[in-house]
Each structure stands twice: as C-alpha cells, then as structure tokens.
Amino acid sequence: xxxxxxxxxxxxxxxxxRIVAATPDAARAVAEVLRRCFAGGxxxxxxxxxxxxxxHLTVDTTHLAEPARSWLAxxxxxxxxxxxxxxx
Length: 88
What we know:
Number of strands: 4
Order of helices and strands: EHEEEH
Structural class: alpha+beta
Distance between the termini: 53 Å
Strand content: 25-35%
Shape: flat
Largest sheet: 4 strands, antiparallel
C-alpha cells in the first residue's frame, strides 16, 4: 500500500488490518491473535482520536503462521467426555 494513498489496495494475498482500541494493550492483544493465524509484517501504532490507539498491521493470507484449526475442531469436547445426560 502506498503510504500517501489510503485507498490503494494491498498486494494480492495480503490484507491491511486496522485496529482501534481504547488502550495499546487491547490493540496489541488483537494483533497477537492475528499473527498466530497469518504471517505478517511489522505493525504500526498511532494515536487515535479521543486518546485511544490505532494499530495497522499487514497480514499475508497466503501463508498461515500456525497450523489452522477450524472452529469445529477446536470446539469439540476433549476425549473421554460423552454427551450430557439430557442429550440423546
């Protein structure tokens, strides 16, 4: 993305993510989750209007940072647990 052109699209396979939060810690926590899913470049942090934090991060959607697990796989109960008594 060109630094002076806010409407320019990122290169194919990349996404620009903008996080606005009340605190830098909250913005960094969200960025950390994204970095666990996608490879990415350096984050850039700026003050947001009203005293918050605005964080910009570029992620590469073509390269996963860690093995991706679907919501279904991560929501399954652990082994050794059966259905609840009220379930069929």
